[in-house]
Amino acid sequence: MKNHATLIRQSHFLGTKIRNLRKQHHLTLEDLSARCVKIDPEAAPSVSYLSMIERGKRVPGKDMLGIIATVFQKDIDWFMDDALSEKAITPEKSGHGGISGMALEPGFLFSDNILQIAIPEMLAQTGTTGRQFAHLLIRAHQEHHRNHFPDLERAAENIGLKRMPLSVAELMDIVQKMGLTIKWFNRTPQEVLDETGAHSKSTVRSFFDPPGTLYLNELLKTEPARLKYDLALHIGHCTLHNKDGLKSVLLAGKNQSNTGSSANALSFGPDAQDILSAWRDFECSFFAGALLCPRVPFRQMLERHSYEVSVHKQLEVSPSVVMRRMTAVSSYPHWHYFDAYPPGTLKAVYRGNGIPLPWGNMRLVEDPCQNWAVFRLINNSSPGTSAQVSVLETKDGPRIYCCESVSVEDMAGNAHVLCAGIDLNPVLDTQGRDARDIAASLKQACIKGRGDADIPAAIRKDLLSAARILNIGWIQRGLDNPARVICSRGAVCPRTPGCYAKSASPDTLTVMEKMQQAIRDEC
Fold first, then answer.
1. Per-residue b/e over 159-168, b at no fewer than 16 CB within 10 Å?
2. Of 10, 252, 335, 373, which cross-links 352 as Cys (Cβ 3.0–4.6 Å)?
3. What DSSP line would sit under 100-126, residue for residue?
């Protein structure tokens, strides 16, 4: 261990290295200080002292530097001048967006006029409803902004004053101050046919009737977590939209929403009312999460509890609120979130890292990969949680994901699965590891094991280091289970034998490509 005099002589780039590491991991000074306090409350640096270290105004002692090194899973020597590298002292600049874009050429074909003509036809031919198109637009908007909507956050904080947890009584008090009248009604769940033709249960949870009446289902009285969410959502509507009548009915069940009339609910084309209503549903839902779990105190709570979903019990909110808010408040941007109903309806999707969807067109495809954690829990009726490490081949090469899935029931009694996960490749790359090489090695190990395998010791060590940096407890639980190779569709399944007969020896050539190849062979 170096003494303090040696640290001073060899620490010219120490502050720069710490700052760049912190920013690469998307941590604020407050986040880093909190991580240090968690390791050693006595020797941990304060926010102001960390700032001075990064600006070169102070040199930390060996104990303090050891704590910082532990947070980033680095040796102390890495911070010294004799371990200098261009990458360590050069800040990385990254763009926004969960999904990489592509150049659309020739450009004149993608003009507003042509797209307005083509989109309705495309939706009709692919069987995509206006409602589904609206949710696709909103998801793309979320992913482009990485679930960061400061205006909605501020609006919620102005109402809730960053209090956490908010009780039912406190929310009722906010409702009363807004001049709203609450009326209770009694509606039990009834069996209905959803938009895919499948049977499920549904009931009305709540709805707003302008100018100031809020109708709540009596069932909510026995479920305070759901009652709090409904109250928060309608508070959001009144705050953001001035108590107007353009607000969907809040349903229990796997229906996407109650946007649009029955006449156009299944229309295959964009409908202005559908899109407006779906957007308002999103705004109010985001507001509700921010009101119940305000950004700063909730993030601090997640840090203390290593991002365990079980914190929902302390806050008396639903697991879905906690899991969705994780994607919005975490310093790590590469999250995904699914809310899935059997046999394959996606009610909510967020992909901050562009992970391929296990379904097509927001509906069940013919050959879904049964090894996605979402599918495995859907097909397993037993309650509980499941942490899984998965490796998936994408257009950018193999990637390692880890997720926590929870089997729950909605207010109508329908079972569904919530899944929050992260892409581990970026944090591995930040640590100086070759993420693609690690992912390729793990994929081969799984394929040799006919689809799943215990994680090799060397890879486990790298992933455990990533888990400690991210401070996410369920990653370590996932490491204790076999890793699974997953695929976007059964037709490209890498398993032997494949999950589907046709995927055992996939033929990727089109008819025209086969004809071209035959001509080449003849010549």
1. bbeeebebee
2. 335
3. -----SSGGGGSHHHHHHHHHHHHHHH
Q: CA 216, CA 227: separation in Å to the nearest integer?
A: 8
Domain boundaries, the chain: 4-89, 126-295, 332-503
Half-sphere exposure of 58 (CA within 13 A, CB side): 14
**pLDDT tens digits for 251-268?**
888 765 443 333 444 555
511 versus 394: the higher-pLDDT residue is: 394
Rounded distance between C-alpha atoms, residue 403 and residue 82, angstroms: 39
Of the pLDDT bands very low, low, confident and very high (cuts 50, 70, 90), residue 506 is very low
Locate 95 and state its tokens: 């763009």
CATH number of 4-89: 1.10.260.40
Query: What's the chain's Rg over C-alpha atoms?
Result: 25
pLDDT at residue 113 is higher than 90: no
CA distance 146 to 327: 8
Give me the DSSP letters along 52-103.
HHHTTS----HHHHHHHHHHTT--GGGGSGGG--HHHHS-------SS----
Residue 27 to residue 299: CA distance in whole angstroms: 11
Provide the pLDDT for residue 147. 92
CA-wise closest residue to 471 among 350, 300, 310? 300
DSSP string, 400-455: EEEEEEEEEE-TTS-EEEEEEEEE-HHHHHHTT--HHHHHHHHHHHHHHTTTEEPP
SS3 assignment, position 202: strand
d(CA 372, CA 356): 11
How far is Cα 458 from Cα 439, in angstroms, rounded to an integer?
A: 12
Q: Is the pLDDT of residue 85 over 70?
A: no
Helix segments in 211-355, DSSP class H:
224-241, 272-292, 295-304, 311-315, 319-329
